[in-house]
Amino acid sequence: MIPLVSYLVWKFKESKPLKVLIYDMTVPLNSYIEHNSFSWVLIQRKFTSFNQLNNPAVNYKGFFPQKDFKFVTNDFLKLSNDQVIQAADSLDMVYFTDTYGIYSNEWYKDQTINERSSKIYGGLNKNDLVLIRRLQDSRKLVMAEFNFLASPTTASIRQEAEKLLDVKWTGWVGRYYESLDTIVNPDIPSWAKKLYGQQYRKTWNFHQPGILFVHENDQLVVLEMGTTLKEEIPWVYTSKYGQQVYEIPQEITYPYWFDIMESGESNRIVSKYKIYASEAGKKLMAKYGIPDVFPCVIENKEKNYYYFCGDFCDAPIDLESSRFAGVIYFHRFFYDKYNYIDRTTFFWHFFRPMVTNILDEYWENMQTRKTKNKSKI
User: Fold this and answer.
1) Domain ranges (residues) in the chain
2) Can you tell me the distance from the alpha carbon of 196 to that of 178, in angstroms, rounded to the nearest whole number?
3) Please, what's the b/e burial string for 243-262 (b: 16 or more CB within 10 A of its CB; e: otherwise)?
4) Closest CA to 27 of 91, 115, 97, 95
5) pTM for this entry
6) Going by C-beta distance under 8 Å and a sequence separation of 6 or more, which residues neighbour residue 349?
7) Longest dimension (CA), the chain
8) pLDDT tens across 316-375, in order?
9) What pLDDT digit, counting tens, does each position of 204-247 carry?
């Protein structure tokens, strides 16, 4: 009875028109996992895009998988400058959820998925920058996350984007693995094992949980629990400001991909990562210029811009749970609260409240501006 009432309350709640563009270049499957988390928030808060409730299958640009290894792409690359500006003017916001793209070993199923391969599609282009500039000039919301500036985006496009957003990618990305044992954990990339052997002249002999760092020049650094790590997983610490404004916890673990970014003074760092390395681990990190504390959430209220230094949107979230009012009061049924390496835990406690508050505040500001504009007529 309670779920039915909760659904009906959500069903008849007034919708809030918000013209959202999700930009996702990494959609190898019809699960749309790379932007499901954001779609969840849009649906739960009844934000509608172009007069329909947000559907993760249609409300995005990027890569669209088809049957029999076919695909189509839909982006701004072939549009004129004026056409991109017109597109930006038709939007209220854009969220770049993944620019990594699609590679042949992920798309053609007869290849080994953890081997490196040629790019089929991906990376920012010059017209994406035109879109961002126009949105910023119009004080519209721009959100982006992990891999926004990394490969396969070219160096020249990356540098322009960094200037626009007052951030800089260090060239490093990292990921936590529940086990670094390649026999136990099939998610460990085969190319990482090969590169490690070439660079360190030793075999990959890791068995505990740990963190893999990869630089754009292919340099690898591996930290393992018990030897070079004192805490196996990265922690996220949020300022008092972030706790109050976005209702996110002071501390939480983060168990997936992240990028190591630097931020200019025009931005505010809301949350930071902390890697708890041993003395041996600290020396190894210092040798390759890897910091043990670095930004996690970067905001710029003046430009209506947010950058999340992690693959936050990629989480195995059940979209059906978004269609219930008050779901936050019984959300513990959807994840194991004692499992600190579960991405759904991070979604419920960090991503969901943060993005909900960002969108709610932006929506309220939009309504205030509209009211002021009407009063001037």
Assistant:
1) 1-147+311-377
2) 19
3) eebbebeeebbbbbbbbbbe
4) 97
5) 0.91
6) 248, 249, 252
7) 73
8) 888 888 888 888 777 666 556 556 678 999 999 999 999 999 999 999 999 988 777 666
9) 999 999 999 999 999 999 999 999 999 999 999 999 999 999 99
